[in-house]
Amino acid sequence: MLANNTLCLEVGEPQDKGSAENCPLSGTVVELQSAQIRATGVEKLQCPACGAARKATIRGELVIYPPHTALRIARANKGPLWIRQGTTWTKR
Ligand SMILES: [Zn+2]
Question: Does the global pTM surpass 0.85?
């Protein structure tokens, strides 16, 4: 049985099409503990480099900023999220 789903998936293989630049912080470990995310229930991180808000990838104790392309237009991020100030992350 095949459903004709036209879901737009953002996850998966990195697609290198040459047009969009990957943010330098793509796939890097951030200085935040997974326990902090679990304790607060806030999973979104604001990228310190480009300002994109993405859901953190949690791998055991590590918190990883998922691969993303650099945001060109600054957007107002709604809702609670983590913002890095210096080397510490604070929750908004
Ligand atoms: Zn970024």
Answer: no
Is residue 14 assigned to a domain? Answer: no
- Ligand 1 mean position, distance from CA 24 (Å): 7
Q: How many domains does the chain have?
A: 1
* Residue-wise pLDDT tens digits, 10-44: 555 555 555 578 999 999 999 999 999 999 999 99
40 in any annotated domain: yes
Taking the centre of ligand 1 as the mean of its atom positions, its distance from the CA of residue 15, in whole angstroms, is: 16
Q: What is the DSSP string of 49-77?
A: TT--EEEPEEETTEEEPPP-BPPSS--PP
Residue 38 has what DSSP assignment?
H
